Amino acid sequence: MEGTSPLLAGHELPTPLDSPRKRRRAMRESDETEGDMTIENYIYRSDPYRSTTLPNTSPWPLDLEDAPHLQERLRPLEDEVRKILDKHGFPKTADFLPYVASKRHYPGGTPPVNLLLVWLRADDYTPKELSPARDEFSQLFQIQNILDMHVEICNRDLCFYPSLFPLRPDHEIIKSYERAKGRIVDVVHERLKTHWKVVCPFSIGRTEPTALPAFVVIVEPQTFCELA
Q1: Looking at the record, which segments are called Disordered (predicted)?
Q2: Chain segment 188-203, per-residue pLDDT in tens
Q3: How many whole angstroms separate alpha carbon 26 and alpha carbon 61?
Q4: Disulfide engineering: 192 pairs with which of 41, 103, 196, 215, CB 3.0-4.6 Å?
């Protein structure tokens, strides 16, 4: 179940996306990312490249198991799925496939569930709103009496899925951290109480060449606090 047809020559392309940083900044400045919530909910709500019906918004990566029985079950709906993607401006290159998804070893994580996953990649056009298509898929499954299928739309290259890389000891952010360490720890402790584990400068990103230096606060899963 995948669409690999190229865009036709002369096809009017959608308005280019803002950069990932601009999109995330817009989310951070919205009401959706303010108030009391778990760190997992904050990460999910701040991420414009992921939309899911999963009840537990466990961070990526999820464990995905191939599910041929689900593929056969949804095969009659392939055309309807593609129509929904086209209606909401998704590119022809968007892939979709059902999996059994889980994150069983993550505290409060996702037990095994059936999941239709719509994949996008970095070079794909990503609609600014993913939830309308997600909700229409859910409605389609309800009409077809498929009541055990969750839906997730995700740009696999741009969604929040970072790695931490060490910094050189002489990096400027290390020097800044040493000068302000006491104040940083005081602020972190005031906001997170005893739920934080480590605060340390790292280079953070998907890959080391594209990673950027930042102060990273590592917290316990399901940490609940006021975030703004």
Answers
A1: 1-39
A2: 999 888 889 999 999 9
A3: 24
A4: 196
